[in-house]
Amino acid sequence: GVDGIGGASAVAVSPDGYSVYVTGATSNALAVFDRSTSIQGMLTFVGSLHDGELGLDGLSSPTGVAVASSGRVFVSSAGDNALSAYEWSFPSLVQVDLWRNGDPNPYVGGTIGGLLGATGVATAQGYFGTDVYVSSESDSSVSVFTTSLLSQLYEAQVVQDGVDDFDGLAQAQG
Predict the structure, then answer these.
(1) Three-state DSSP state, 106
(2) Residue 10: which of 122, 117, 98, 93 has the closest Cα?
C-alpha cells in the first residue's frame, strides 16, 4: 500500500514529469510516485523516506517540497527547523544534504538562520546552479540558499519581517 502521505502537506513534480513527491506532515515522510505520461497522469507508489529511519533526519513535520531543474529534491521541515536535499541513486532516493537552523554556515560564517518552523520551499535557476528559497512562519522570514563557485549550496541571506526595511513577511508560509 501507499505509505508516508499522512497529513499530505505539499506536492511537487519533477521537471521531466515522471516523478511526483508528496510530503506527509503527520507521517514525517517524503513519498515518491512514478507518474505515467501516457495514462492520464496516473500514479504508482514507489516508496517513502521516513524521519529517523536508517539515520535519516530532516523530515519531522515536512511542510514543503520542490524539485530543481537538476532533479534534486528539496524539503522544508517545520519539526526539524531544516532544509534537506535528496538525489536519485537508483533504485532509491537518498539524502545528500541537511541544513538546520542554528548550524554553522561554513561558506559565509555565522550560523544558519531563518529556518525556525520552515513552512515552504521553492527553487529557481541561479547564476552558478540552483537557488533555493525557504519560508519560515516562526521567523517571519525567507532564507535564500545559493550555489557557490564550488557547486556547494549555502545560505546567503535571510530576509526577515521588520528588519532592514522588509515588511509583509509576518508568519510567512508557502
Answers:
(1) coil
(2) 122
CA dist., res. 76 & res. 90, Å (int): 23
Provide the 3-class DSSP secondary structure of residue 53.
Answer: helix
Sequence-distant (≥ 6) Cβ neighbours of residue 173 within 8 angstroms: 119, 120, 135, 137
53's grid cell: 529511519
For residue 109 the three cell numbers come to 560564517
Buried b (16+ CB within 10 A) or exposed e, 62-94: bbbbbbbeeebbbbbbbbbbbbbbbeeeeeebe
β-partners of residue 160 are 141
Cβ 49 vs Cβ 21: under 8 Å: no
102, three cell numbers: 542554528
Q: Write the single-letter amino acid at 171.
A: Q
Residue located via cell numbers 561554513: 106
* Separation of alpha carbons 59 and 118, rounded Å: 11
Per-residue pLDDT of the chain (174 residues; tens, 9 = 90+): 799 999 999 999 999 999 999 999 999 999 999 997 767 889 999 999 999 998 899 999 999 999 999 999 999 999 999 999 999 887 789 999 999 999 998 888 899 999 999 999 999 998 888 999 999 988 888 999 998 877 788 988 888 776 656 555 455 456
